[in-house]
Recover the amino acids of this structure.
């Protein structure tokens, strides 16, 4: 492992977001075939008091860039939540990945000891080495998996392999 | 970080399983209040070709113990998938956590270089240091979040805080 807090954030987020983008591509085909308005799909949700698909994707993007940025003490790029189509969500994912790809393992050298504050918890802080496994990773996957679950629930033609994506395997 | 492959597996799995168990406890109350058979809830699913709640929980348990065990080259305890109630699933989670809690960071010292084989990929292997972030963690959260999503979808009174659980935070 080069820098564990890099290894368990940046490439993990990039991979899951890449896979999510591909799922949204299949959702575009679904909308075209079924003659469903994309705006309808973007508002689909699993329960009336859960966030809809569009928000799940936006939050996954925010979590990925926010978590990585907080670990190295920089400001993440701000995004306006102004997306109105699947294509625009895919562009947002691209921008999020492009930001993540500017980060280097070296920048995460002291991340375990960084104090991290979240607006919902005033006058409290996490330490980076606990923040990532306890909060950053579970929260990120919450939104990525919920987005997948919404797509599956409405009938988009995706499966577990679309969620897992490509894997680093070696021949015996 | 003591041992990164420990830090991003055992305590992460224990926390998420602890939270999942508490959600199943609220699901018991839901069944009692709504006069829903537990066997009906255990078979609830988000799409007709997705696994039902019971299987999501069983697989989350299998992933947690299997991933941790593979990283240190031991056999995980076998469980029979014979659960028939929410209580029995909660006991399975307890047993899974009890196994995880026998593992020590020290055992994960060489885990990054361990060759890991999965039955679905014959004649191929992962290396532990890639297996955990690329496969183990995303796969585990897939099933934990899907279980949560099923519970939310049918109306069990849980929310994001039940998923996140307690967090290590410090006063400023």
């Amino acid at each position: 492992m080069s820098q564990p807090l890099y290894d368990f954030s940046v490439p993990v987020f990039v991979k899951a977001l890449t896979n999510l983008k591909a799922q949204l591509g299949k959702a575009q085909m679904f909308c075209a075939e079924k003659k469903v308005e994309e705006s309808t799909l973007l508002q689909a949700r699993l329960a009336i008091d859960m966030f809809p698909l569009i928000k799940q994707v936006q939050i996954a993007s925010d979590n990925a860039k926010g978590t990585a940025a907080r670990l190295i003490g920089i400001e993440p790029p701000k995004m306006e939540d102004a997306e109105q189509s699947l294509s625009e969500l895919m562009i947002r994912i691209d921008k999020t990945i492009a930001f993540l790809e500017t980060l280097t393992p070296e920048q995460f050298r002291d991340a375990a000891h960084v104090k991290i504050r979240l607006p919902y918890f005033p006058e409290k802080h996490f330490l980076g080495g606990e923040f990532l496994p306890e909060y950053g990773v579970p929260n990120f996957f919450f939104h990525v998996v919920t987005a997948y679950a919404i797509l599956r629930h409405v009938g988009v033609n995706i499966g577990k392999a679309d969620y897992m994506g490509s894997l680093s395997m070696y021949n015996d």
About this structure: Helices of chain A lie at 4-7, 10-34, 38-42, 53-71, 86-100, 128-154, 160-164. The longest strand of chain A covers residues 124-127. Chain A has seven helices and three strands. The radius of gyration of chain A is 17 Å.
